[in-house]
């Protein structure tokens, strides 16, 4: 069994089960991507809460695993070649777990790359834009007198929802009948946009019927329901 004690992060978050994949996270739209994925594929793991209220993400121990200071991050004691693999960036983690287990990423080369293009669409567009709407609509940005930033991000979010709507029309999932990491990457963000951020009316979400139906299908999955609350908030 790999010795995880050489990784500084285990000093702050000791591994009770060092033989298992270690997840360091918080149930944010980015964090739940990985917890949902792990629940979907059934890979045993141990979870550690990274408490933003305590600035855990800024500690030297966490930075040693993710120099970008963001969640989620993982430490897999059974990485490639049987060696431990520390990994950050939610999109990279989703792809790694899919390739490690052979699940939720098509084996056909063309469909594999098509899935990855939607994953990158989320990483480069949906996440950053929806997150900015949250900041300017719900958090500190709502007090800014200049409403042009909010307008810009609302318009871009509506455009992205339009792209999703056009693609999902007549489809169950982003890859037709195949539920994949592309869907997992986006579920938490769309849920947050209209739920926690309270921006449903702002982006006129009701007009995006196919996106709404896709979201309902995704949220109905038991693994998604579990993953959305992992790790439990303090």
TrEMBL record:
The keyword Oxidoreductase applies. The keyword Plastid does not apply. Its EC number is 1.8.4.-. It holds the Pfam family GST_N. It comes from the Bacteria. InterPro entries: Glutathione-S-Trfase_C-like (IPR010987), Glutathione-S-Trfase_C_sf (IPR036282), Glutathione_S-Trfase (IPR040079), Glutathione_S-Trfase_N (IPR004045), GST_C (IPR004046), Thioredoxin-like_sf (IPR036249). Residues 108-234 form the GST C-terminal domain. It is an enzyme of class 1 (oxidoreductase). Keywords: Oxidoreductase. GO terms for molecular function: oxidoreductase activity. Residues 18-105 form the GST N-terminal domain. CDD domains: GST_C_Ure2p_like, GST_N_Ure2p_like. Belongs to the GST superfamily. PANTHER family: DISULFIDE-BOND OXIDOREDUCTASE YFCG, GLUTATHIONE S-TRANSFERASE-RELATED. This is GST-like protein. It comes from Bradyrhizobium yuanmingense.
